[in-house]
Design goal:
CATH class of the largest domain: Alpha Beta
InterPro entries: HATPase_C_sf (IPR036890), His-kinase-like_sensor (IPR054327), HisK_dim/P_sf (IPR036097), Sensor_kinase/Photoreceptor (IPR052162)
Structural class: alpha+beta
Shape: rod-shaped
Number of strands: 19
EC number: 2.7.13.3
GO molecular function: phosphorelay sensor kinase activity
Strand content: 15-25%
CATH topology of the largest domain: Beta-Lactamase
Largest sheet: 6 strands, antiparallel
Keywords: Coiled coil, Kinase, Membrane, Phosphoprotein, Transferase, Transmembrane, Transmembrane helix
Radius of gyration: 58 Å
Protein name: histidine kinase
Number of domains: 2
Length: about 575
Amino acid sequence: MPALTNIQNKTIRASTRILMFGVAVITFILATFSYIAHDRREHLLERQRLENDRLADTLVLQAGGTLNQAKMVLSTISDRLHRDRAIPAFDPIFASDLGRLIGEVPMLAGVRVLTPDGRYLHSYPERPDPTVSVGDRDYVSVHRTPGSGIFLGQAIVSRVSNTWVLPISIAHRDPAGKLLAVVAAMVRLEQMNALFDSVRSRPNGAIGLFRADGRLLARGPFDSSLMEKSFANGPLFKTYLPQAPKGSYTQVVATDNKLRLASYRLIEGFPAVVSVSSAHDDVVALWQADALRLLMIALPLALATAWATWLLRRQLLEREAMEHLLARHSSDLELANEELRQVAEVSAHHLQEPLRTVLSYSQLLIRRVAAGADTDMQEYVAFIRSGTFRMKRQLEALQRYLALGLHTRFEPTRVPMASLMHEAMENLQRPSEAAADSVTLPTLPVVTGDRQQLASLCHHLLCVAESQEQTIHLDVASEGDMWHFTLPLSQGSPLLHQGATFALFGAGSDFATAGGRPLSLALCRKIVHLHGGRMWTEALAAGGMLLHFTLPMGRPDPGDIGPMMAQAS
């Protein structure tokens, strides 16, 4: 029963191991694809951030170039006003000069020279009513305070052209610092908004031009409802811009309250910031598409692994059940064989005593009736004596058969079969001349096995062959890793007449037919089996029979001999 428990525990461990292995493989597949998906998500976010950085760098140059061109136009006009202080209002020559300047800067919608209270002195290309005042505009009122420089006004709808423009203004002062006029250039926002909208990331990206105080100046996509709002409390102006003039961040922005990846750049020389942002949901949507493709790969792999694991585990459980049943049958068979061996051994041993009693009294009876017994009485007494001796010798042979392989230690060595055959012939007390005439041996090989048992095999083979009335001829040939021996039995052999079986008291076991050597064939087969070979007979077409047996060439593993002998016994 310990063998049964070991087999069961071993199989359970195997089924558990295959289950754990399958779970580990599935976990590995899912973890690997999860890592790939996570890495892909981080890669998409980083790629989008880099794209925003590159686009912000490009747009800050574009917007900065436009603002610098407008600043140069304003500086040129201011210098002209310093040189020609007596230029009359709406002077056509001065207006022509303004038109030439605007023609060189396509992004400018117009230029204006205003009085400190906001009335028009000069304007191009339109000529507004002189009575119209824009003194309430921030790009005019800011210069009433001394020390003001270039100023970006709030984006407005021009009262003259009815289009969105970005006013940029500077103060024209006398040497004493008195404000004489305000020079303003109107930058076209339609073109800037269109540019921002054309290069933004789709579908929900946004690009904005902000004043440093948080006022939105231009945006793509354009939204007029945002143009009059201040976003000074947004994360860009409240947190990041005070820390660095450029950078990137991921946060909910103030313009639309969405999570965005944003990059910003402060335009050098102007209180303006370019912000490029992409919706986080857009990047996640791309990642979800990639994750779905990965899932379509990982899920079949995981399902295939689960199915293979379930199939292997079911096979292991079935094998466990079969091994459990086989172990029980083997255990029952071992118990039955042990009981049978004990019964046979005890019977053979205990029958010796009544046989000795019968033999003793038979001898006494023979001596008593020897002188005056008639012929029939003497014949009967001889039968009793012969039968008793025959049973005694058969019981002794049975004991030898049962003891074979159990009470001797199997020590495999390289044994020359030629020397064993010669020793067997000498042990049979046959004259060497007669043996040479009646036994034909080829060049016998060296086999691996127990020398004592192989010597017994040679002895019993000669005992079997002695019953023939012809020359004993032993042949040998190699077959793979085995030596194949053949011994022909003549047609007149008593073994052949009895069927040449391997029964314990069958052919070769009777005194009269086998020279008084019982169990020879059964002992030969058992010895061959203990050495890993086999023995069988073959009927010949011309009559007679061929006895076959095989023995190993190589050296067997000593660890396998004991279990093999126990199974054979």
